[in-house]
Design goal:
The complex is a heterotrimer of chains A (556), B (233) and C (642).
Chain A (H helix, E strand, L loop, with lengths): L71 H8 L25 H21 L24 E3 L18 H10 L3 H9 L1 H6 L4 E4 L23 E7 H9 L5 H6 L20 E9 L2 H6 L4 E7 L8 E15 L8 E7 L6 H5 L57 H13 L9 E9 L4 H4 L25 E2 L26 H4 L11 H5 L33
Parallel strand pairs in A: 2-5
Antiparallel strand pairs in A: 1-3, 3-4, 4-6, 5-6, 6-7, 7-8, 8-9
Helix pairs in contact in A: 2-10
Chain B lengths: L25 H5 L28 H15 L3 H4 L17 H12 L4 H9 L7 H10 L2 H16 L1 E2 L2 H9 L10 E2 L2 H5 L3 H4 L36
Antiparallel strand pairs in B: 1-2
Helix pairs in contact in B: 2-5, 2-6, 5-7, 7-8
Chain C lengths: L5 E2 L2 E4 L3 H11 L3 E3 L2 E3 L3 E4 L10 H9 L80 H5 L10 H15 L30 H10 L4 H6 L15 E2 L34 H9 L3 E3 L2 E8 L5 E9 L6 E8 L2 E4 L5 H8 L26 E7 L14 E3 L14 E6 L15 H9 L9 H4 L9 H12 L2 E8 L8 E8 L5 E6 L4 H20 L3 E2 L11 E6 L5 E6 L34 E3 L14 H18 L4
Parallel strand pairs in C: 1-10, 2-5, 2-11, 5-7, 11-21
Antiparallel strand pairs in C: 3-4, 6-13, 8-9, 9-10, 12-15, 12-18, 13-14, 14-15, 16-17, 19-20
The chains are: A alpha+beta (556), B mainly alpha (233), C alpha/beta (642).
Chain lengths: 556, 233, 642
């Protein structure tokens, strides 16, 4: 397996350390675990331009006839190479040759980004043990879940008594750090439950804070059909981590001292197969025994520490993946590329609800309720804070369950891209249950938007020029994007019934700038704690912007 | 906010810059694909003598609309319609595409065929210069003149002022406020140009970041912008 | 009805600043009560709609409003007739010459009022969220005008020093950005080592230009400012950053300001504090919000204790009433703002036993209505300052808010506006539409379309690049300066009940309002200072008073040569509704004590800026918030005995 210089995959052998991903069989071992035959592979990216080989227009409405099944050679080009793109490979013109040429440049670019998104999704969710995704099981740990590849935000923005965070290259070192940061309540649980202690190498540790159950800017928690909270987590990769620690951005004081820094996370690019910065936001559902048995979610066993409060139970739960944002900064898109996936059974579409063409059961919508259905897309009743006694059930009597409807349907292009990729996966793959919503990307990414002069393929670390008045949003396409589990309450409004007025679609478009969810528009507001002077002379950066991530404001 | 065209070679590392293909790349514009014609005796726009009404899906009509709008607003086509490809009427990579909204709106609101007449003029070959278009509008009848003003106001403010109300105000002995204007949509308001012309952004819609107001909007390091810095008197 | 009353510990009417802050304080931990330490059962009655899951609706209304007045994002719909709305409120559009004193058009019945009361407010969860966000404190002398300046104004029953720790608490709660050094004039002091929760908001280009230009006044200019009557000669005028509840950093999960320049009426990213933030914390702590619930009468029993509040519920904006009910509590807090609170008190007649209203033995309820009349001036600078960028106001010239002159005329605070002529030309929220339309349609409603200002023909109708360059040049040089003038208390300025009703059949507020000579002298002085400032800025002055302006008045002043001339001045509303149930130590002349507890009814508190006996020149929100927190603390300490 080729290790690119960007993957830093120098994992030591497991001798003396606890292997971080084990097959089910090795769980039974009580002696020192044997070294796994294949070293866990780090993440690497493919610097070769791979174009989408799908013939015909994917922008729909229907799949081009005869497109499926995808020819084996085409499929192999995607799946038998390194899956993760180092950067987007897009063009307003057609992709490969012979190609599917969409009706407009925008559609061609969107298609390129959506292709990129699926490759990214599959790459990140490929088994951490290096086996191909086609043979992955529902519970197979993924590369992004591997401590070598991504680290949770809370393990970086530590309180002062636990600073600084470290991210060693070797398995033992990583394990020691995980152990160091293990919450006392979870230690107590592990002491009381030897079965959990033995399973610990297989467990995700999720330490909850308010943002782990309350959507951004306190817009509200999301409650599933069993009356449990959905759980959110944020992770970063090594490139982001290194930039943060090198520049002392992991504490408030460090940020304040580094006032002059124009925060600029390293971008990915094809040249040199530079990996670039990745941040993830994921949403989980607490799975029932039936759901675990059905294997329709990618799932992980976890220890979940409840949010700060008088008591913080550490809970033994199995979590199912329901939402996945991958955000990748590339040399071509310094406003990052924003990918959103979710579970196919989260919620119905508004058109499906209106036509009563529901195909439940859904994770966040009841098809069974009648006159007593909760108000659609309403936030739960207060109080919102989880009660330690209820262990992540929202109410003692499970009386409330969110009733969520997706107001903006997937575009035909996204639907068709989903169909294509699903067709290339085994029919029984758990990844059949995940779909791309869309990819948001900045359309104006060249000189006059952020002043970036970095389109040199050869330059590994661009000098971002923030001197100009940056239009940090750079006209994102699509202009609005909301994941039903992560931006549940910031969707566009329900589309009003067309009153037969030919201009109604202009006047009454349901999405509202700045109010309706847009990844880039919102993240463009992110700043940290750098204190800058107010009247800088021309040519000097003046903005305590934090490069499209809210991570820096979590520093303590 | 209008976006500016991309350098195509961003998408193909190592590749040479593509040939201008007639779309609104900066290079193409600077090479003067829109030849400036001498202002010959220019006939006023008259409202008659063509068959079909303006069609938002016709590349020729859209191009004519952009030439017309550029002349009337004084704002470069590249900002009115970023990435527009006149050959295919491709909106390019502009996800906002406000020009389509405006075209449809004006077309629906104009009951005097003045819009069609203006587009016909702008479609002439060789293409008329901005000065030609302005001269022609000024020489036109009141329907034409005031529709032109409605069009400018639409681009500048995202609001529609009926040409009749404009005429009533302009010809009144004691002009009063026009209280009947209508904001097309939140999107149109946030695309309003007059604030950008003044170096700012529509109130309630900033894509900038904390502290920007403390600095001059036009940095001396800027390449020559398409909206010129207003000069002091 | 008494059988089915909702029962609770604390009933709060109104979910604005004061109501939400108190609700949060009382709900966040167990309180000592007569039956042990426990969480209080708190119910908040809100006349308008509740908190929305997102602001799509408000932002849509705002973006689509032709006149971007402060009320434009919020319900009820602006065009509705006030008699046809269940929970109506005044709007800027009701203040035109043809509507302000016509109860058919205007929510406030100002028929027969000498001058218009020009401030407005909201009635929905969060209260008047359309506020500017500025949080300057009152200065020490503001609390003791009587004692300090021998004026017939009441002293506050509380001093700046007593309120100081509560200011700090309020500033933490709202999240204030500021610089202690820049807000230490007129005797304002802080606890040792105190810093505002966040660093100050950086100044705009206009602020910077003003500071550069007014930093050094010549001796002649200083002499020409003697009319100000300051203690020391004025050798410079300094604009300093204003403390504001506007994030300059991430704060409590909220974003930092991105300069959307729409603080009034709404911040699209909630970088400006609004009370829904605190209200949500209160309801998260267990307080219950009843929206679409209009308190209609406060019930008083034979022991002069408040025994309940009747309310009316409705569903649609236009009504009708869908139900009614009552609420019984141990403690009642009315936080419905400076007009709606006296309205409710006066409406509560208890079958004639409280014919003059509840809590009104002093007859002061509804009296001493005060605003900060805003003297607005606007002009054109010779240089570009690029307005429409950043918060609406970032800096102010504050140190003229106190001085020996207060013995003779009202003080004022000067705010520099970053919104060009939006608040001035063509009424609130009218520009840049008026200026733009002028130059496209060849008219001159802004005053700007004339040869002397543009070097073009009068009433030019421009097009193309000339239009673009002209507007770009002119708009980038527009500015406004506002003088917020202290209004003196006058019992004849009064809120009573109108015979005009709303859609629930409740009597709307009736307003009698005028400006005293003391206040008018303040406005006139502002006018004179404005002239000096504009001259120093080499600004062309476009300030004007419309012929039909109902707020216009004529004032005799001395011009720069010492000659007495008459000038026609006017004022706008600051959005500050104050004074109508003032605090004091003497129950014969005041309604509440310094803890905002009614003198008449031991279990009734009346909170908000209605308790201010005098108003100083500072925006009232941080002061009313500090008082609310002090009230909450008082309640917590004494709840056992209530």
């Amino acid at each position: 397996m080729r290790f690119s210089r960007s993957s830093m995959a120098e994992l030591a052998s497991a001798a003396g350390g606890i292997l971080l991903m084990l097959s089910a069989a090795s769980l039974a071992q009580t002696t020192a675990p044997a070294a796994s035959p294949a070293q866990p592979s780090g993440l690497e990216c493919n610097g070769t331009r791979i174009l989408d080989p799908f013939k015909g227009k994917l922008a729909g409405p229907d799949l081009p006839p005869g497109l499926l099944p995808i020819a084996a050679a085409d499929r192999d080009k995607i799946f038998k190479s390194v899956l993760l793109p180092c950067q987007e490979n897009v063009n307003p013109g057609a992709q490969g040759d012979p190609a599917g040429i969409e009706g407009s440049g925008l559609e061609n670019l969107q298609r390129g980004f959506d292709f990129y998104s699926w490759r990214t999704f599959l790459a990140l969710n490929s088994p951490a043990d290096g086996t191909p995704i086609e043979t992955a099981q529902a519970e197979t740990p993924t590369k992004w879940e591997h401590p070598n590849n991504f680290k949770q935000l809370l393990d970086v923005m530590l309180p002062s008594d636990l600073q600084p965070p470290v991210w060693p290259a070797d398995a033992k070192g990583m394990n020691d750090e995980r152990d160091r940061l293990m919450p006392q309540e979870c230690r107590d649980l592990l002491n009381a439950r030897p079965d959990l202690a033995k399973d610990l190498p297989n467990r995700m540790i999720v330490k909850m804070i308010e943002e782990s159950f309350n959507e951004p800017f306190k817009t509200g928690p999301l409650i599933d059909q069993q009356g449990h909270y959905a759980i959110f987590d944020i992770l970063m990769n090594r490139q982001m981590f290194k930039y943060i620690t090198d520049n002392h951005l992991n504490t408030k004081a460090g940020q304040a001292e580094n006032a002059d820094l124009a925060v600029d996370f390293p971008p990915g690019q094809n040249a040199g197969a530079a990996f670039g910065s990745f941040m993830l936001k994921v949403s989980w559902k607490i799975l029932t025994p039936e759901e675990i048995a059905a294997k329709t979610f990618h799932m992980r066993r976890a220890l979940v520490l409840m949010p700060p409060g008088e008591k913080r139970p550490c809970l033994d739960r199995t979590l199912g993946l329901i939402g996945f944002h991958a955000v990748h900064k590339t040399v071509g898109r310094p406003q990052w590329i924003w990918t959103s996936f979710e579970h196919v059974k989260n919620v119905p579409d508004r058109t499906e609800v209106a036509a009563n063409k529901l195909s439940g059961p859904y994770n966040f919508f009841s098809v069974k309720c009648k006159a007593d259905c909760p108000a659609e897309n309403a936030t739960p009743p207060y109080p919102w804070d989880p009660d330690p006694a209820l262990e992540l059930r929202f109410r003692k009597d499970d009386s409330f369950k969110s009733q969520i409807v997706r107001e903006t349907s997937l575009t035909p292009a996204a639907r068709n891209m989903n169909a294509v990729f699903h067709s290339m996966l085994p029919a029984n793959s758990v990844w059949q249950n995940y779909m791309l919503l869309s990819t948001q990307w900045p359309t104006a990414f060249a000189t006059h938007c952020t002043g970036l002069h970095t389109q040199n393929a050869g330059t590994p670390a661009p000098q971002t020029d923030f001197v100009k008045q940056p239009d940090m949003t750079c006209s994102p396409a699509p202009p609005f994007l909301a994941n039903s589990t992560l931006e549940t309450y910031s969707q566009a409004d329900r589309k009003p019934d067309n009153k037969g007025d030919s201009l109604a679609d202009l006047r009454d478009a349901p999405a509202v700038p700045l109010a309706t969810s847009s990844c880039i528009a919102c993240h463009g507001n992110a700043v940290g704690f750098q204190r800058t002077g107010s009247n800088r002379e021309a040519g000097r950066p003046n903005l305590n912007q934090s490069d499209f991530t809210f991570m820096l404001e979590k520093a303590q | 906010m209008g976006t500016l065209p991309t350098d195509r070679h961003n998408d193909r590392p190592g590749a040479a810059a593509p040939e201008p293909d007639g779309s609104f790349s900066r290079r193409a514009m600077l090479a003067g694909t829109m030849a400036a014609t001498a202002t010959a005796a220019v006939a006023p726009i008259s409202g008659s003598a063509f068959a079909a009404g303006p069609d938002v899906n016709s590349p020729q009509d859209m191009m004519a609309f952009l030439l017309l709008s550029e002349a009337l607003t004084g704002v470069d086509k590249q900002l009115l319609a970023p990435e527009f490809d006149p050959k295919t009427n491709d909106p390019g990579t502009d996800p906002i595409n406000i020009k389509n909204d405006y075209f449809r709106w004006i077309n629906a609101k104009d009951t005097t065929s003045s819009f069609a007449a203006m587009l016909t003029f702008a479609k002439k070959n060789p293409a008329p210069s901005a000065a030609d278009i302005i001269a022609s509008v000024n020489a036109g009848n009141d329907d034409i003149k005031f529709l032109a003003r409605s069009i400018v106001l639409l681009w500048y403010l995202g609001s529609w002022y009926e040409p009749k109300d404009l005429k009533d105000q302009a010809t009144a002995a004691n002009p009063g406020r026009i209280n009947s204007s209508e904001v097309l949509s939140p999107k149109a308001y946030t695309q309003g140009l007059v604030w950008q012309i003044a170096g700012a952004h529509p109130m309630g819609y900033s894509n900038l970041q904390f502290g920007y107001w403390s600095r001059n909007p036009r940095d001396p390091n800027d390449q020559p912008p398409l909206l010129p810095t207003p000069k002091s008197p | 009805m008494a059988d089915t009353c909702i029962e609770c510990d604390v009933a709060i009417v109104g979910s604005g600043f004061a109501g939400s802050l108190i609700a949060k304080e009382l709900s966040q931990k167990p309180i000592d009560t007569a039956n042990g330490k426990r969480r209080l059962n708190i119910v908040i009655l809100e006349a308008g709609p509740g908190v929305q899951p997102n602001i799509n609706g408000y932002m849509r209304s705002f973006y689509k409003a032709s006149a971007k007045v402060p009320e434009s994002p919020y319900p009820p719909a602006m065009a509705s007739a006030p008699s046809a709305v269940a929970a109506g409120r005044p709007t800027a559009l009701m203040l035109s010459a043809s509507s302000w004193n016509k109860p058919d058009h205007a929510y406030l019945d100002q028929e027969g009022s000498t001058l218009p009361f020009k401030s407005t407010y909201e009635r929905l969860a969060g209260g008047t969220s359309h506020w500017m966000g500025l949080t300057p404190r009152l200065v020490p002398n503001d609390f003791r005008m009587n004692e300090r300046y021998e004026l017939p104004f009441p002293n506050w029953p509380i001093s700046y020093e007593t309120l100081m720790p509560w200011y700090e608490k309020a500033e933490a709660e709202l999240g204030v950005s500021g610089d202690v050094a820049e807000h230490s004039y007129a005797g304002v002091t802080y606890s040792p080592g105190y810093a505002f929760p966040m660093p100050k908001i950086p100044p705009s280009l206009f602020d910077q230009h003003v500071n550069e230009t007014l930093a050094h006044l010549t001796d002649d200019e200083t002499k020409s400012l003697e009319f100000l009557g300051t203690a020391a000669p004025v050798t410079s005028l300094t604009a300093r950053s204003q403390p504001a509840a506007r994030n300059s950093q991430p704060y409590r999960n909220r974003r930092a300001c991105a300069g959307n320049t729409s603080c009034i009426p709404i911040c699209p990213i909630q970088a400006k504090y609004d009370p829904t933030i605190t209200l949500n914390e209160a309801t998260n702590n267990g307080a219950k919000l009843m929206d679409h619930t209009v308190a209609s009468e406060i019930l008083v029993d034979a022991n002069n204790r408040v025994s309940g509040i009747n309310f009316i519920t409705y569903k649609d904006e236009a009504g009708p009433k869908t139900g009614s009910g009552c609420i019984k509590a141990k403690l009642y807090i009315i936080a419905a703002n400076g007009i709606e609170t006296p309205r409710l008190l006066l409406m509560s007649k208890n079958g004639g036993r409280t014919a003059n209203g509840v809590a009104n033995s002093s007859d002061m309820v509804g009296r001493n209505l005060m605003d900060h009349p805003q003297y607005l001036s606007w002009g054109l600078l010779p240089v570009q300052v690029f307005p429409y960028r950043g918060p609406l106001v970032t800096s102010a010239i504050g140190d003229l808010c106190d001085g020996p002159f207060r013995a003779r005329r009202a003080a004022f605070r000067i705010s520099l506006g970053n919104e060009a002529w939006t608040a001035t030309v063509g009424g609130s929220g009218g520009d840049p539409h008026v200026t733009t339309l002028d130059f496209i349609n060849g008219v001159n409603l802004s005053g700007l379309n004339k040869k002397d200002s543009t070097k073009l023909a009068d009433n030019s109708a421009l097009i193309g690049t000339q239009l673009r360059d002209t507007l770009g040049n002119l708009i980038s040089r527009q500015f406004r300066i506002a003088f917020a003038v202290e209004q003196s208390p006058d019992p004849k300025n009064q809120v009573t009940l109108s015979s005009a009703t709303d859609a629930l059949g409740l009597p709307r507020p009736k307003i009698k309002y005028d400006l005293s000579d003391y206040t008018k002298q303040g406005i006139a002085t502002a006018f004179r200072l404005k002239n000096v400032i504009f001259r120093k800025l080499s600004a062309e002055d476009f300030t004007t008073t419309l012929d039909d302006d109902p707020a216009a008045f004529v004032q005799e002043i001395e011009d720069s040569e010492g000659k007495k001339v008459n000038v026609r001045l006017t004022y706008g509303g600051a959005g500050h509704v104050m004074g109508t149930y003032r605090m004091g130590t003497d129950r014969k002349t005041s309604v509440v004590d310094s803890f905002q507890r009614s003198h008449d009814h031991a279990n009734l508190y009346l909170v908000g800026s209605g308790t201010f006996p005098t108003v100083g020149t500072a925006n009232p929100t941080i002061t009313l918030s500090a008082l609310a927190l002090r009230t909450a603390d008082n309640i917590v300490q004494n709840f056992k005995e209530m």
